[in-house]
Design a protein that fits this description.
By secondary structure, the protein is of the alpha/beta class. The chain folds into 2 domains: about 10-150, 2-Layer Sandwich (Nucleotidyltransferase, domain 5); about 155-195, no CATH class. About 35% of the residues lie in helices and about 15% in strands. It is built from 6 helices and 7 strands. It has helices at about 50-65, 75-80, 85-95, 130-150, 160-165, 170-180; strands at about 10-20, 25-35, 65-75, 105-110, 120-125, 190, 195. The strands form 2 sheets. It has a 5-stranded mixed β-sheet with strand order 3-2-1-4-5. A two-stranded antiparallel sheet has the order 6-7. Strand 6 (about 190) and strand 7 form a beta hairpin. Helix 2 packs across helix 3 (about 85-95). The longest helix is centred in the C-terminal third of the chain and has 22 residues, at about 130-150. It is globular, with a radius of gyration of 17 Å. It starts with 11 loop residues before the first strand and ends in an 8-residue tail after the last strand.
């Protein structure tokens, strides 16, 4: 059973990300403020849901949330500042995009760089603990999956419509055989080697 809130009578925004461990594409963060009476029997950590359930929940969350925001940080920025800092940038951008100012940020995980003038609480496995973080996990995941599926139409060799940029054997094999794209993270290791060693596709 997901918890409704961490601190009663406080406007809380749940925050989560998707795509940190991928070889290609952006890292995406979402921030969600749910109404106090929000309930949903299906909502859970997005990793535990079927794609169809996530897509249905995305529509529900975006319609019923008091405020929500999704932010992308692309692979070039990830290579510039590293994935941890890029994730923090995406999370901060998602908070900045909220139309309602929260009093507390509930962040999935064990690390967060303080957002100016807003308190935060890091919660390990928070996406399986609180409604707002679970909602953020669904939005981050579905928005990123949609983006990577669209990129698949441009670069079909990598099967991004299926693996969403994660390092599956098929994805890694395609990189070795075909090369890497402008959407690949050059600073990430692929098959034990840095992707810089592969030829870029224009």
């Amino acid at each position: 059973m997901l918890k409704k809130y961490y601190s009663k009578n406080t406007i809380e925004a749940g925050i989560d990300e998707a795509g940190r461990g991928c070889l290609a594409g952006p890292v995406v963060a979402a921030a969600v403020i749910l109404p106090p009476r929000f309930r949903n029997k299906t909502l859970n950590d997005s990793k535990l849901l079927l794609p169809e359930q996530r897509d249905e929940l995305r529509l529900v969350i975006e319609k019923k949330a008091l405020a929500w925001s999704v932010a992308f940080v692309d692979n070039k920025r990830i290579d510039e500042v590293n994935i941890l800092n890029a994730t923090m940038e995406a999370m901060h951008a998602a908070v900045t995009g909220l139309k309602l100012l929260p009093g507390l940020l509930l962040v999935d995980g064990n690390y967060f760089i303080e957002y100016p003038n807003i308190k935060h609480q890091c919660i390990i496995k928070g996406d399986a603990s609180y409604y707002s973080i679970a909602a953020a996990s669904v939005l981050a995941k579905t928005h990123r999956d949609e983006y990577m599926s669209n990129l698949h139409n441009e670069f079909p060799d990598y099967l991004w419509h299926k693996n969403k940029g994660y390092g599956t054997p098929e994805h890694r094999d395609a990189i070795v055989k075909v090369g890497y794209t402008t959407y690949h993270r050059r600073s990430f290791k692929i098959n034990g080697q840095y992707s810089l060693e592969f030829m870029e596709i224009q």
